[in-house]
Amino acid sequence: MIKGIGIDIVEIDRITSSILKWGDKFLKKIFNDHEISLCYKKKNTFQCLAARFAAKEAFIKALSDSGAEGRMPGLKDITVMNYASGKPFIFSPKDLTECYVINLTISHERHYTVAMVILESKEI
Question: Of residues 43, 76, 94, 108, which has the active-site annotation?
């Protein structure tokens, strides 16, 4: 059963400007070392970081929709990773991954990136 849906769109230039202005202070507030390292190895570094930011925001919105407000993680506690196939997934605090199947999709175009999360309850 679907428990929550979240979507977020991010202007890539907004994330780029924030990183150029605030540097590590901005990066370390939102992303963990793995995400920063991964994105800085990519050709489209800022697009990669913007996509992860959108995914984290979409996940938080889906959690809010699900009634899980008491267990809301911080942005840095949510890790957006990729399977070998390239498909993105969210790794979050264990109590949330035990309760939900987290479905994530991310899309980009030149100026924007969008992410959508659908939370499903796990069958017990």
Answer: 108
Question: What does the alpha-carbon distance between residue 91 and residue 78 come to, in Å, rounded to a whole number?
Answer: 6
Q: What is the pLDDT of residues 63-113, one digit of tens each?
A: 987 776 667 888 999 999 999 999 999 988 766 777 889 999 999 999 999
User: Which CATH number do you get for residue 9?
Assistant: 3.90.470.20
Q: Is 25 a catalytic residue?
A: no
Read off the pTM.
Answer: 0.92
Task: Decide: residue 66, CB within 10 A, 0-12 exposed, 13-18 middle, 19+ buried.
Answer: buried
28, 42, 61, 111: the active-site residue:
61
Domain count, the chain: 1
- pLDDT tens for each residue of 115-124: 999 999 887 5
Domain around 66: 2-121
Query: Is 61 tagged catalytic?
Result: yes
Asked if residues 111 and 9 have their Cβ atoms less than 8 Å apart, the reply is: no
pLDDT mean across residues, the chain: 92
